[in-house]
Automatic annotation (TrEMBL):
Residues 122-239 form the GST C-terminal domain. Its EC number is 2.5.1.18. It comes from Sinorhizobium americanum. SUPFAM superfamilies: GST C-terminal domain-like, Thioredoxin-like. This is Glutathione S-transferase family protein. Signal peptide: none annotated. Keywords: Transferase.
Length: 239
């Protein structure tokens, strides 16, 4: 399916009806009477990847604008008007509304396209998905991300780098995966239980990022290996 406006050129006498339909039933940002303007500004990186996987799981297509970090496009004045932090992804809705932060973008699409549910389907499952998504971000993602953040030249102008800290975090990465391996020892197929969720997307992208920077998931961690192979076997992984 295509999310965004559907260009129509109706007879003017029907414009009032189309506008009424838009107001009555369409979620904020979606408009069927104007040319499509919804865009996802994204690029090479874990957070954009998370959103692309999420969209593919939902079966949603959104026009994408590639932002090249190596060329400094994220620091261009035009882009900083969209996100003053100079970060991707950024979702621009049809009405010009801007949503940043990957999880916030995913939550928007969860609301306007609830099936299949990727944030849980009841109070308990939503809480568990939130718990595991937070754990994936704060325990695993943050540790892995600190390695390139404090050692790669791409980030040297964004913060004061501490290479020694990068090495400390690099040594900690296997311990984080070992922790997750213990958590998955009960044999459940996905992080939050029986159903694939946004938490699996976040943690799966952690595995991708870890390997990109030469930090392979230890082969002896059979529970993590089993889980991540299940995640990577999904069609959405190639988003």
């Amino acid at each position: 399916m295509m999310v965004g406006s559907i260009p129509l050129k109706p007879d003017k006498k029907w414009n009032w009806l189309l506008d009424a339909i838009n107001i009555a039933i369409l979620p904020p940002g979606l408009n069927h009477t104007r040319e499509a303007t919804m865009k996802l500004y994204q690029g090479i990186g874990p957070n954009s990847y998370r959103v692309r996987i999420f969209l593919k799981e939902k079966g949603i297509e959104v026009p994408m604008v590639e932002i090249d970090f190596a060329k400094g496009e994220h620091r261009a004045p035009e882009f900083l008007k969209l996100n003053s932090l100079g970060q991707i992804p950024v979702l621009e809705l049809d009405d010009g509304t801007i949503i940043t932060e990957s999880v916030a973008i995913c939550r928007y699409f969860e609301e306007v396209h609830p099936e299949p549910p990727l944030f849980g389907s009841d109070a308990v499952s939503r809480a568990k998905v939130e718990m595991w998504n937070r754990r994936a971000e704060l325990v695993v993602f943050a540790t892995i991300g600190n390695v390139p953040l404090h050692s790669d030249a791409l980030f040297k102008d964004r913060l004061t780098q501490f290479p020694a800290f990068a090495e400390t975090e690099r040594r900690a990465v296997p311990k984080k995966w070992a922790w997750l391996d213990r958590e998955l020892a009960d044999g459940r197929p996905f992080l939050a239980g029986e159903v694939f969720s946004v938490a699996d997307i976040t943690a799966g992208v952690c595995g991708w990022l870890s390997e990109v920077f030469g930090m392979e998931i230890p082969a002896e961690l059979k529970n993590v290996q089993r889980w991540i192979e299940r995640v990577r076997s999904r069609p959405s992984w190639n988003a």
